[in-house]
Design goal:
Layout lengths: L3 E5 L5 H11 L6 H9 L4 E8 L2 E11 L2 E9 L8 H15 L4 E7 L3 H9 L3 E6 L9 E6 L17
Helix pairs in contact: 1-2
Length: 162
């Protein structure tokens, strides 16, 4: 039986996360972009699901004031349909709550009904559209989560106590 763990993305995860990204998206982020997200972007947090230590799913969020804006979520194509997308998204939502965020937003392709269904299941609501948002000029559905779970600030991995 494989060991499944969930935690923050580390520099050592960048290569595997980038492989997932390129397997899932027509216009993937570069490896350098993920590296900068982990090492330089103070607003970015990434959660990774690992199977036997190897990333199989990830989710990214930017914290801006009191909002967590989801940047990307992906599950390796060989691991889809096994609940990892929901696991990593729930972990990211809890991280946002623990880190003091009050709500979350995201954009999703209007054609991506599977992702929309997951987001609705997790409490996101449709709030609008961004016309021709994607590289192929497909519209994005804008969704928001107004009620995050109970926060446990002591679990915030970036908390600095003075």
């Amino acid at each position: 039986m494989s060991e499944i763990t969930i935690g923050l993305m580390k520099e050592s995860d960048v290569e595997a996360v980038h492989r997932i990204e390129t397997a899932c998206f027509r216009t993937p982020w570069s490896k350098a972009s993920f590296y900068r997200e982990v090492t330089e972007n103070a607003c970015a947090r990434y959660v990774v699901v690992r199977e036997d230590g190897v990333p199989i799913a990830y989710a990214g969020v930017w914290f801006v004031l009191d909002e967590g804006h989801i940047t990307n979520i992906a599950v390796h194509p060989d691991r889809r349909g096994m609940g990892y997308g929901e696991q990593v998204t729930r972990a990211m939502i809890q991280l946002a709550a623990d880190s003091g965020m009050n709500w979350m937003t995201l954009e999703v392709r209007r054609s991506n009904k599977i992702a929309q269904s997951l987001y609705h299941k997790l409490g996101f609501i449709d709030v609008g559209y961004r016309k021709r948002y994607y590289e192929n000029e497909e519209d994005a559905l804008v969704m928001a989560l107004e009620h995050l779970p109970e926060a446990h600030p002591e679990n915030d991995p970036m908390l600095v106590e003075e």
